[in-house]
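REQUEST ID: PR-0412
SUBMITTED BY: lab tech R.K.
PRIORITY: routine
TASK: structure prediction, single protein chain
INPUT:
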Amino acid sequence: MDATIAVEKESFFKEESDFLKDILSLRFFEFWKNSNLAEDEKFEEMRTDSRLELYITSTCNQHCEYCYLWKYPELYPSEINNQEQILKNLGILLDWMIENKFFIPEIDLFTGEIWHSTFGLRILDLIYEKIQEGFNCGSFIVPSNCSFLNDKRAWGEIQRR
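STATUS: complete
OUTPUT:
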């Protein structure tokens, strides 16, 4: 009986994985692979629906009461908030996108407020490096409370990037 349950469980997870791959392929990957869509009049509609949202970290220099990451820390547990691992994973993701020759029309970099920090600058540097290596994207949106503007050093670092 236990062997049957294990086989059924394995089969279920494989079907679930295949289903997710199909959804991602049809909804995102096929669009990202076909950069000629950028010239199509429906591109703007698809751009809105096919952008990539990256949630980098919940680390923040503010504690805004409206912030869902602050209100609900279980959404981004502290044990997964490792800067080196985040950088490594972002590099792997961007390399995979380069390898697949994806064109990402828009990327949203959601995060706590890190743009004043070395970590935030390392994120920007990594993305720039991957663009130099062939990562192809349209634009970036970086929601921010812009507190880095109060720090002349941080502001200058952001401008240099």
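NOTES: The first helix runs from residue 2 to 33.
REVIEWED BY: pending
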